[in-house]
Amino acid sequence: MAAPPQTVLPSRPGRRLLRRAALWVLLLLCCLAVAALAWRWTENAATEKLRLAAAQRLDGYAVSLENLLSKYDFLPGTLELNKDVIALLQQPDDETLRAEVNAYLEQVNHLSKSTTIYIVNLQGVTQAASNWREPDSFVGDNVAFRPYVRDALRRTPGGFYGVGTTRGEPGYFFAHGIYHNGRMLGVATVKVNIEKLESGWVQGNDKVLLTDAHGVVFLSSEPEWKYRALSPLSPAVLQELEVSRQYFSHALLPLGIRELRKLDNGAAIVATPAPAARLRMLAQTRSLAPRKWQFVYLSDLAPVEASARNAFIFTWLSEALLLMLVLYARQRRRLGRQRQRARLDLQRAYDDLESMVAERTASLQQMTHNLSEENVVRRQAEQKLRQAQSELVQAGKMAVLGQMSAGITHELNQPLTALRTMSDNARVLIERGRVDEAKDNLATISQLVARMGALTGQLRQFARKSDASVRPVAVAGAITAALFLVERRVEQERVNFRMSMQSPDVFALCDTNRLEQVLVNLFTNALDAMADSDPRQLTVSVSRSFQKAMIAVSDTGPGIPEAIRRHLFEPFFTTKPQGQGLGLGLAISEQIIREFGGRLLAEATTTGGARFIIELPIAEQETA
Ligand code: ADP
């Protein structure tokens, strides 16, 4: 059976990452929304400000237009006050009168700064005009089709903006009936040029239009927009305009301003047609009620859009800054927390270290204390060892002396026997009067006694306990003294003794007594070894090699086999029969020489005997 499909969930760090990414996206969207709000709010506020400013301007323009027009409102009505005007209308064929009225109208036109003033009869035919001198004078023209004339003839004084049918010049026409004794005789008309107002309307990129009741632009800060309709005109209106010839021959095509969005207060956002500089503009209207006209003010929206854009960017940047500040603060807080943790860890480590140091110091102090105690014990042990060694050396010496005792006794007994015999002989010789012979005997006795004294002196000297202090010792002297103690054995055992002094005045750094002890040991061993040898040759040679004094004691005995040589310097190693050797001689000798910084070596001679070499530090002559 196939396993059911499993949903693979992201791991925990993955989920956290996803959550964080989602949070960031949300935050970004929020920031965008706030920035968009700021955009919209600024746009609205700036548009409202623009609208208010435009409304104010429109009010201003309307007032100035009204002021201008109201200045002429009364003028047509006042013309009936002139008797000639009335007379001309009553006698239309009186050319003199016409000339007078023409001159009058010309003068009034000049004074009132209007464009043209003319008088028409009830049939709409111009009887007199201020422009009577001009080739295209209105005099004689029938203007009955003009709505303002029609209105005036119907006793409704009216105003009308239109383009002149003669010259095509635009203007505002005021018309008023001329009455005499309550009877209408004709109509007085004043044409005023209001185009000069346009020049003051242009403000930066803004545009101002003035439209009539049908929405036809007749005044505009934008020349191309003039005589264009805000919205397409109906055929009826077109027909009516055609009849009244209000805009002469202008086609009155639609302007093409599109409304994009309606705002409050009658304002709207519109798209203006090319070639205008701006496409999107704020349109605002103000009606001039009595004349059914409408002012349209188009404000440039560029500053509004720029403000909104700036607000968006500013908000966006502020949010980014705020976000960065928050992140920075968070990072700082995190760093602070990490630092605090690190400080605590450090403090803990420091405390641990301090307690460890204290523990170690205590244990070190304890160790030092123990060491100093051990040191004392060691020193005491060393002292004991030295003492034991010294006693051992002394014991070794005594053992040598013990071994020599038989010979020494014999050495002393012989002269003693000779002394008794010779003293007896001396007494007999004296009794027999042989005094000279007795004298000789006594001299020999004296020599024997002296010799015995020397021997005992040497024995005493050898047996004394030495302090083993190091000083320069004449090697030759030490050899002579040691030889003295074994001399009798050498003679008795017929040993040939030879001394080879390559360096007779060598001094070694050691103790005389100890060196003598070592030499006596080596001599005794050599004599023991040569007991069964023939010939018996004991050779002592002294030399110096570098900073060493070398004393070699060679014999012609059987030599030392390798098996024995390995144990030579071991204590209690002996090959001698019980009672003859202790096996301490060489061990003690080696130790004595080693203590003086030297070496004791054993080797075989070329003749098969044994050779022991003492190496000692040399003492310089000056020191000696
Ligand atoms: P002991 O003389 O009491 O035996 P030593 O320490 O003086 O003790 O000598 C140890 C041994 O070394 C001797 O027993 C002997 O075997 C050997 N020996 C010492 N000197 C010589 C020598 N000159 N020739 C041969 N053997 C020797």
Strand content: 15-25%
Strand order, main sheet: write it out: 7-6-11-10-9-8
User: What's the CATH C level of the domain at 471-623?
Assistant: Alpha Beta
The gyration radius over C-alpha positions equals 79 Å
Q: How much helix is in the residues?
A: 40-55%
Number of strands: 18
The N- and C-terminal alpha carbons lie at a distance of 113 Å
* CATH H-tier superfamily of the domain at 471-623: Histidine kinase-like ATPase, C-terminal domain
By CATH, the architecture of the domain at 471-623 is named: 2-Layer Sandwich
Treating each run of at least 4 consecutive H or I residues as one helix, how many helices? 12
Instruction: Summarize the helix and strand pattern as letters.
Output: HHHHEEHEEEEEHEEEEHHEHEEHEEHHEE
Secondary structural class: alpha+beta
Ligands: adenosine-5'-diphosphate
Shape: rod-shaped
**Which fold does the CATH topology of the domain at 471-623 refer to?**
Heat Shock Protein 90
Protein name: C4-dicarboxylate transport sensor protein DctB
GO molecular function: ATP binding; phosphorelay sensor kinase activity
Catalytic activity: ATP + protein L-histidine = ADP + protein N-phospho-L-histidine
Enzyme class: transferase
